[in-house]
Amino acid sequence: MTRDTGRRQADAVACTGLAHAFDDTSAVDGLDLTVRPGEVFGLLGPNGAGKTTAIRCITTLLPVPAGMVRVFGHDAAGDRMAVRRLLGYVPQQLSADAGLTGRENVALFARVFDVPRRERAERVAQALAAVDLADAADRLAATYSGGMVRRLELAQALVSAPRLLILDEPTIGLDPIARTGVWEHIGAVRAATGMTVLVTTHYMDEADQYCDRVALMHRGRIRALGTPAELRERLGARRRAAPGALPTLEDVFRDVAGSGLDDEAGDFRDVRSTRRTARRVG
Ligand SMILES: Nc1ncnc2c1ncn2[C@@H]1O[C@H](COP(=O)(O)OP(=O)(O)OP(=O)(O)O)[C@@H](O)[C@H]1O
Ligand SMILES: [Mg+2]
Q: CATH classification of 20-81+203-262, choosing from 3.40.50.300, 3.20.20.140, 3.40.50.720, 3.40.50.970?
């Protein structure tokens, strides 16, 4: 970990006024977001909110057409290589190659991310062990279960020892035990290295349990931000009507995502967004 030498340490991620549109679809629309070093930050929001688009701007996979994105002080538009060297990324779509073994998949990432040749074999083995795949390392990824594939992708992202790990829906489609497994592996690596984690999830129980702070994104912007407890308490204070029953994070999600916000055309737009997302995933 970098030492704070009196000066304030740079934020792990700092987005100001980030905007990104696909043709006439505004996916991210003036996003202000700060992720502090060492925290687990959850980016939540309904389908089509713009989470993946924002993340792809932060990872430099998409350009930053408007606004500013910095990762540990490095400009994602001007200094893409410096940013890439700092981060590990598990995308929403599957990224492991079914025709390679687990070890070959991780070794490929080690090469791409410039892990020194002499350290590669050991670092690959360590990353596989960290996600409990040492025993399955030499089997084809095609034979892995969904949970194993997600853990393999985690190993791919961890092999470069990133200071910032970005995970887009890391537990989607996994059974409850596999979900817990993924989070435990993330937690163990984080405890050992102090890395920062930026994660999206649709599982509010996971966000509540594992994230230090969460932001609720809707239609391209942050609409609520705080610790899970703060967000629950804030909504509870607004809804005095049901004393004792503290709202859940799912209630907070519904409150933000269901609030209509700006326009009457919203419903149509939401359906269109969801379909587009479904098409890309399918
Ligand atoms: N490559 C693309 N081409 C065109 N439109 C896109 C593309 N990627 C995203 N969009 C649109 O941008 C908007 C935001 O999509 P994005 O994938 O960022 O949302 P998301 O919050 O990650 O949603 P989900 O929770 O479903 O993953 C949606 O309206 C989507 O249809
Ligand atoms: Mg997404």
A: 3.40.50.300
